[in-house]
Amino acid sequence: MPRLGLLLFIAAIVMFVVRLLARANPGDRPRSYSDRSWQWRQPSGDHGSREGETSSQRPKSPYDVLGVGPNASQDQIAAAYRRLVQQYHPDKVAGMAPEFRELAELRMKEINSAYEYLKRHASG
Q1: Is the pTM for the entire model greater than 0.70?
Q2: What are 1-52's pLDDT values in tens digits?
Q3: Which residues contact 65 (CB under 8 A, 6 or more apart)?
Q4: At 50, phi and psi to the nearest 5?
């Protein structure tokens, strides 16, 4: 009969994976920044939140995705992109569960589209 501590540990890991999967629904693909319909909206007086909407559901600006400011130079944007690629590349989690690889792939798609958008449209 398995020990209670082992069962609790396994249950905690399962709950963690379920939470990660709940955040990354297949329908929640990153928005392409090359899409002309994409526009960055400043938060309104209610801090930009709609009823029932979380901050992860609102589209991020490409600057927020890469972690740079709107006045960032092309060199700063490229450096931020390289840093994030090293951190989130799917090959980093190749030995882990498929869920982690899928999350890393989604994050890389978001990073790549933000970088492509800023590479074409950022001044500096």
Answers
A1: no
A2: 557 777 788 888 888 887 777 666 555 555 555 544 444 444 444 444 444 4
A3: 110, 111, 114
A4: -100, 165
Instruction: Give the CATH fold of the 60-124 domain.
Output: Helix Hairpins (1.10.287)
How many Å is the Cα radius of gyration of the chain? 18
Please give the Cα distance from 83 to 22 (Å, whole number).
27
Enter the tokens of residue 29.
């693909």
Contact in structure between 70 and 63 (CB atoms under 8 Å):
yes
Kindly report the backbone phi and psi dihedral angles of residue 81, in degrees, each rounded to the nearest multiple of 5, phi listed first.
-60, -50
SS (H, E, C) the chain: CCCHHHHHHHHHHHHHHHHHHHHCCCCCCCCCCCCCCCCCCCCCCCCCCCCCCCCCCCCCCHHHHHCCCCCCCHHHHHHHHHHHHHHHCHHHHCCCCHHHHHHHHHHHHHHHHHHHHHHHHCCC
Could you read off the pLDDT of 59-70 as tens digits, one per residue?
A: 788 999 999 998
